[in-house]
Amino acid sequence: MRIDVVSIFPEYLAALDLSLIGKARRDNLLDLNVHDLRDYTHDRHRKVDDTPYGGGAGMVMKPEPWGAALNRIAAESPAAGPLGEKPILIVPAPAGAVFDQAMAYELAEAQHLTFACGRYEGIDERVLEHAAESFDVRPVSIGDYVLNGGEVAVLAMVEAIGRLIPGVIGNPESLVEESHSDGLLEYPVYTKPGSWQGREVPEVLLSGNHAKIARFRRNKQLERTAARRPDLIVELDASTLNRHDRDT
Ligand code: SAM
User: Fold this and answer.
1) Summary count for the chain: helices (H), strands (E)
2) What is the pTM for the complete model shown?
């Protein structure tokens, strides 16, 4: 997969050199390029913002550098096809659709993703309209709160998407039983020692009885989800529940 990120703080994205995403880059599973938006300015001050039309607080990101940066990325995109296929442009925004695991799975299938990190009060709206000529433009929020810029949102999204690319996580089994993979939160996990601070690992996990362990974990998933995220239980597709789940 190719990923391009445009930001006025490219150093912010240095964390994407670390851990599994950094390794995926070194293993050529992920071709990740970070662009400095100021490289697309032409004035002495490398200005990327200006006052908002209509008045109000804060500054707005100017369209010209964004237009130039995105035009260049679109022209180089491996995903732009002869039949008019468009690469995906994710625009982090608190006013976007909320990012979740299903969206991460969908985006992990893409050949090319571009992320446009806003700052200040956001990016001039015409940039999104213009970009829609070359990209499938998607404003995306990582939650109902406001950050100072899109970089932190991009770190979260690239990590969530990147770990789903085949080969990035050593054991793909570990993706299957995670929170949100089946609509439920994950069960509690334990490791050695079996006894710590007077607290014991649940006995069933030491039993070697795989059916009982699976039942214990499934019950814990259901209990935990009902307690912490009742909204997920309400959304659960009844057909994913078995007879024993209904007794829990
Ligand atoms: N004025 C904007 C609004 O009320 O919708 C908020 C702008 S915010 C201070 C600056 C930038 O941070 C946004 O353009 C966006 O890139 C990023 N951002 C802030 N909160 C975000 C969130 N919850 N999810 C994704 N990106 C966010």
Assistant:
1) 9, 9
2) 0.94
